[in-house]
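User: Predict the full complex structure for these chains.
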Amino acid sequence: MSAYILRRLLTTVPLLIGINLLTFVLFFVINTPEDMARMHLGQKHVTQEGMAKWTHERGYDLPLFYNDQAEGLDALRKTIFVEKSLGLFLFRFGHSDAGRDIGADIRQRMGPSLAIAVPSLIVGLLLDISLALLLVFFRLTYLEVWGAALCIFLMSISTLFYIIGGQFLVGKCLQWVPISGYESGLDAIRFIILPVLIGTFAGVGSGVRWYRTLFLEEIEKDYVRTARAKGLSETRVLMVHVLKNAMIPILTVRSMPLISKISRLSAPWFS
Amino acid sequence: MGVISLILGGCGSPPNNPYPLEEGLQNILYTSFEERPKHLDPARAYSANELEIIAQIYEPLLQYAYLQRPYQLEPLAATKLPTVTYLDQKGAVLEDNALEPTIAFSVYDLELRSDLVYQPHPAFVRKDDGAYRFHDLSPKDLEGIQRLQDFGAVASRPVTADDYLYQIKRLVHPEVHSPIAEMMADLIVGLRPLGDRLALDFEAREGKGSWFDLRPYPLEGVEVLDAHHIKIKIKGKYPQFRFWLAMPFFAPMPFEADAFYSQPELKAKNITLDWYPVGSGPYQLTENNPNRRMVLERNPSFHEDLYPRIGEPKDEALGLLKDGGQRLPLIDKVTFVLEKETIPYWSKFLQGYYDASGLASDNFDQAIQFSGVGQAELTEDLLSKGIHLDTAVTASIFYLGFNMQDPVVGGLDPSHTRLRQAISLAIDEEEFIAIFMNGRGVPAQGMLPPGIFGHLEGEAGMNPVVYDWVMGGPKRKPLAEAERLLQEAGYPHGIDPKTQQPLVLYLDTTMSGADDKPLLNWYRKQLGKIGLQLVLRTTDYNQFQQKMANGNAQLFRWGWNADYPDPENFFFLLYGDNAKASKGGENAANYKNPEFDRWFLAMRAMDDDEKRLEIIQKMQAIVRHDAPWVFGVHPKSFSLRHAWYRNYKPNLMANNGLKYLRIDAALRAERRAEWNQPIFWPLALGLFLLIALLWPAWRAYRLRMRSKAR
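Assistant: Here is the predicted structure of the two-chain assembly.
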């Protein structure tokens, strides 16, 4: 087990280096520092000297990978790549070009984002699993057919529609909750309900169908037949044996959105 | 259901109230920001969204009178408007009416108010021995400090003339990058050498992270006579300098703040001068969380400042003078909420959770209808809510420029001029405004927008090259006239005699998105009307800038937003010595007409009198004839506000209008309660539907269980 974990961890190293290199190329080679300077210094009264000053101050006027002006190791060290890009591996995010410390900003945004992501995950998981189990329980009846059809219908609607529709219906027409915003503390509930509801609802179609497939796959297996042969009730077979075994792929897939949500926290600073 | 309504409902306030319940009846203004402002440092801030915040915090020397029109300046930190003395090369005082060439320097003499005091701030706190308590923080001192309030101690001190001097020096601080640094370095005596010296010393200094104190460096052009008296010496005669004195670039900056914020440990916590301003104005920024909201609160040490007693004649009837003589600010707190999308903002505005709103094209049709005479009016729905509409023509212009260095469209000779005139005529700006701007604009008749000295209404202010005066209004000349001009230009029906093909022109633009396509196609069609062919060269912003700087463009679209309400700020866009291609100035058309330039120099330094007006009309006539621009559009701003939002008057120059506004919080609470009654019956319906759905499931379950038992 530990060998497996170690192996998995080691394989991420080249992956991360690759991603780092790729983003570096995107942000410093394709989009040159001069472009950035122009964007940041505004539209009026921008001079060439002003842009040169800006790039120099941020160290963007260094060579990209190899500094032939420097001696020894510094030839590699005094480059944009080493100074700006490698620090990310040490969680040293540095300052954004607008002068804000990125690490501090990520910490600040983490709270509200997790306040929505975690409940969405839990509620969505519970609802999707229960509904999928029900469908499996009623397999080969008209309930399953119509249930699956409904899932496909819900799946076919774009997430954007759920968001705008939810805001319109719940926020604007029924006026139950604020349309947008956030407060800390207990009051946060009022702001979280709608996004969690929308998130759950938007995912229910695909979620239920996906879990149903997993359960159906499980239910064909030998151990289920054995369990049935032992005289266990259908409910028990489903709730205990099938559910437990199907949880492995479910949790693997379901934790992905949470991770992508965290990585998205930092995204605005790269734009 | 009861439980849910209890959770949502709180105590009496509508459940969709996005603000803390205790704020219900408080004197708070709610507005939003779309994007976090990049800079709140008064030496750097230049964008509208930055000024919207810092203009409430920092007090420059002068300000625009809130109610008076045309725009005029009044003292703010100064006791009166500056007295200007002209000096010759040797420093001898000249008469006020001295001729411009003899004037080598102008000295602005400013007396300052003595009752200005900074907001309470940790940077001013001293220990018993007189040293500053928070200027030398160790990592241990900073434990538990995340925000400025966490320091637990604040102090204050009066504003002195030295603080203005310090700020002027900061304009050329090598690390500050003030957008007006280059401009002021050419203007204020001694500022350029100071900037060069600072740049050298800054590179060479020891201890890179520490404070770079500007106090020991002398600045020749600024003289501090005593704590409340300062003289600023500029080169030549430049009366527009007074307008710059009304911008936050000329606000006081205490050196204590600069020293305090220079500590690297604070930068790592995002506590910087760029995020936590220190001013003497009506408000202080008490919360700055650009990821959620920013809060301005009344500055407890704000000096006496009164609501104006006089305004324009119509202001009395509009109720704008009711608060005359009241002490400012009238609102205790202003909350800026992060709102990235326009749809939620609009919905919350209609629910009463935002006090005022602009108009996006998404909700334009919902809010505005045009009456029979083409007048914009609010829809019934909005009128019944007591919403008001304010419109104002902005002090800006969008135009289509010709590169005057271009061999095809440039040149001041008659045939090239005819070509440009024909194009000016063919591009139907009225149609543009109707299609792309929802009618929110007026066609430009020359370089000057309404509200700027020199702009004339009526026939006298019409562009006779493009319009005829018909039935009391300007009417675009028929296309036949454009055809005739084109013929005279040597392109009959748009055909280039050299190639026997339609003449091809190139428009350089940065617009490339799907949304811009209709607009670009529209331009193509306009030129197509007179047989010309338009080719679009889309580039990214940088390449576009590069092309403009090299003078390689042919046609381009650009705009200008006035820095200050003076015709000079528009005419300089076509002044020959400001040419973009050769001099790096703002004259992107590279237009150079010696006659225009001569009048420009004469007009620039004049006071607003009859003679100046006359010269301005001559200049307008020249550019209308030469047509280096297709004078496009002056956009109109539309803004909506609720009945409880009082004392608002669109002022396109002043950014510090917040202190004059008044909120009737009681009326707002009443309306919010009325407009936001939650509808709970669908909840019951939903519950019923759920049961109805569960019923067949239950039946099937029973059936299956029984079948198993068999």
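The longest helix of chain B spans residues 681-709.
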